[in-house]
């Protein structure tokens, strides 16, 4: 099965006479949950779906244990995980930074080369736009809610692809839905996701 993509206009760089340029983005498909992965792995081995779920749950726990100790966790043929931290930007000297000021920022993931190679022969298929007329804010927001009715979460990048809109419009739609208590925002910085309340 092919991955679907669509083309989006690049924002102008100031010179309006320049020819329009485009970039391609993947159109988000379904969100594959742990249970489906577990069922698929179970068919490839002699262990049950329940055993696979238990192993994945324990793997998640052990990754968090080692990352909390400042270690890097490397999973062969998958990639390695590490932690990023942040501290207040207004501090000017290293002696002014206390341990309490340094906080968890995000989990970094670097894909293993073996896994990257599996995508070299990836099949792509262009997703037809269907409607060339831009969606109204209300239509975009309803599409976000419809997406969340089927999937567990959505990101601003997924909203851009879902509605064929700019990042500014996607963030504005998400903010409107959040302020109306129709969705809930979780995470910080580049790790922000939105879920149904």
Automatic annotation (TrEMBL):
Domain spans labelled HU: 1-126
GO molecular function ontology, one term from the record: DNA binding
Matching Pfam families: HU-HIG
Record protein name field: HU domain-containing protein
Source species of the chain: bioreactor metagenome
């Amino acid at each position: 099965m092919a991955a679907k993509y669509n083309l989006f206009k690049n924002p102008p760089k100031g010179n309006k006479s320049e020819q329009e340029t485009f970039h391609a983005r993947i159109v988000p498909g379904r969100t594959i949950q742990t249970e489906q992965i577990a069922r698929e792995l179970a068919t490839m081995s002699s262990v049950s779906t329940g055993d696979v779920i238990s192993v994945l749950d324990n793997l998640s726990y052990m990754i968090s244990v080692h990352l909390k100790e400042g270690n890097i966790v490397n999973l062969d043929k998958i990639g390695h995980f590490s932690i990023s931290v942040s501290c207040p930007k207004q501090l000017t000297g290293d002696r002014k930074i206390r341990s309490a000021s340094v906080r968890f920022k995000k989990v970094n993931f670097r894909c293993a080369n073996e896994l990257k190679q599996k995508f070299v022969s990836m099949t792509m298929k262009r997703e037809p736009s269907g409607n060339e007329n831009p969606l109204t804010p209300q239509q975009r927001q309803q599409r976000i809610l419809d997406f969340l009715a089927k999937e567990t979460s959505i990101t601003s990048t997924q909203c851009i692809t879902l509605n064929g809109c700019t990042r500014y419009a996607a963030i504005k739609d998400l903010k409107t839905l959040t302020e109306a208590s129709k969705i809930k925002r979780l995470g910080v910085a580049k790790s922000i996701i939105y879920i149904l309340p």
